[in-house]
Amino acid sequence: MSNCPKCNKKIGAFYFKQNCPHCNANLMYYDFDNRLKEDAALAEKEWSAVEKITSGIKTSAVGSLPTAARLIMFFAPVVVLLMPTFRLDDSTINLVSIIKLVISSSSDVFGNRAMLFAFAAFAVAIAFALVNLVVSLFSFTKNGLIRNIIFTIIGVIAFAGVAIVAVSAGVTLCNFGGFYVSIVLMLVVIALHIAVNRKIKTE
Fold first, then answer.
1. CB 25 within 8 Å of CB 4
2. What is the pTM of this model?
3. Are 137 and 149 in contact (CB under 8 A)?
4. H-helix segments, 63-143
5. Residue 160 CA, distance from chain mean position
6. In sequence order, which residues have a C-beta less than 8 Å from that of residue 72 and are 6 or more positions away?
7. Is 120 helix (H, G, I), strand (E, B) or coil?
8. Residue 111, SS3?
C-alpha cells in the first residue's frame, strides 16, 4: 500500500495505473520539482555526514605533527623487539630469531612452553600495534581519547602479562632489552593520544 502524493488517500499495492483513482493526479510527476529538491537536500545531508567522517579520520591519522609522531610510535615498540628481548639457556631471542625458528622448526617453538609464550608476547605486541592504529582513526569522536587510552593500556597489560608467563615458563628477560624499551614506548603513546586530542580540539 502507498499514498497519493496529492490527496494522501490509500492506493492498493496492485494498482499500476499512472493516475490516482481518487483525484486523478499523476502519481509519478505530481509535485516532481519539490520531491526532487527534497531528494537533493537529503543526498547533500548524507554526503555532508560522510565528508565529516572522512575529514575526521584524516585529522586523526595525519592531520598534525602529534598524529604523525603517534603513527610512528604505534610500531616503534614492535621495532625495538629486534633487540635481544628474552634469553633461553645461552641463546637470546628477538623478533627476527623467533620468526626464523618458527619457519625452520615450528615444533621447537610450539612444543616448548617457554618459547611458545615468548612467541605469543611478540604476537601480542604486533596485534595491539595494529589495533591501536585502527582505533586511533576515530580519535575525533566524542570518546576518542578515552577509547585510545583504554586500548593502549590493555595492550601494555597483555604484552607484559604474556611476557611474565613466558618468564615463569623458563625464559628470562634481557637486561635493558627489547621488552623494557617496548613497554616504555607503549606508555609514550598515551601522552601522544592526549597531545592529538588537544590538537583536534583546537582545530
1. yes
2. 0.74
3. no
4. 65-79, 95-104, 106-110, 113-136
5. 21
6. none
7. helix
8. coil
Q: What is the number of residues in the chain?
A: 203
In 3-state terms, what secondary structure has residue 91?
A: strand
CA-atom Rg of the chain in angstroms: 29
Nearest to residue 83, comparing CAs of 173, 197, 188? 173
pLDDT score, position 116: 94
Q: What is the DSSP letter of 82?
A: G
In 78-111, which positions are buried (b, 16+ CB within 10 angstroms) versus exposed (e)? Answer: bebbebbbbbbeeebbbbeebeebbeeeeeebee
Cell digits for 14? 496492485
Q: At what angle do helices 32-62 and 178-202 cross, to 10 degrees?
A: 140
* Distance from C-alpha of 188 to C-alpha of 192, rounded to nearest angstrom: 7
List the one residue out of 73, 162, 52, 150 whose CA is nearest residue 113.
Answer: 162
Smallest Cα–Cα separation from 130: which of 78, 63, 191, 182? 78
pLDDT tens profile 14-50: 777 777 778 877 767 666 667 677 777 777 777 777 7
